[in-house]
Amino acid sequence: MIYEIRINDVVIGTTNLEGGDPPMGFVFGTVTPTENYEFLSGVVKAELYEEGRDTEIKCESISFEDLTKEMGEMCIEVTALIDSYEEYDKYFKLHREAYEKQFS
Questions:
Q1: Which residues of 60-69 are buried (b: 16+ CB within 10 A; e: fewer)?
Q2: pTM for this structure?
Q3: Which of 46, 47, 76, 78 has the smallest count of CB within 10 Å of its CB?
Q4: Is there a contact between 92 and 26 (Cβ–Cβ < 8 Å)?
Q5: What confidence tens digit (pLDDT) does each residue in 34-47 have?
C-alpha cells in the first residue's frame, strides 16, 4: 500500500510505511518526495492518506527526519503516531498481525 503525505492538500511525498510498532501506535517508512517537498525536520502539521483517496488517516502526530544532506543522497523518513487502536487496525492490521505472530 502506498500512502500520501499532504500539507495543505498538496502531496509532498509518498511512503509504504513499511515498519510499525503496534503497541505504541507508530508506523514509519522511507519517503519518496514529490516536487512539492521542502526540507522538513521534527513534528510537522501534515496529513496522511491512502494514495488516491480523500479519507484522512487520523494521526496524533507526523514527524520527519531528513538526513539527505548528511548522507549525500536522498534519505527521508517519516513516523506517524496513529490516533487510536481502531484506526491503526483499520489501516495497518498487517503490522499488528506480524507483531502478534512473534509471540505465538
A1: eebbbebeee
A2: 0.92
A3: 47
A4: no
A5: 999 999 999 999 99
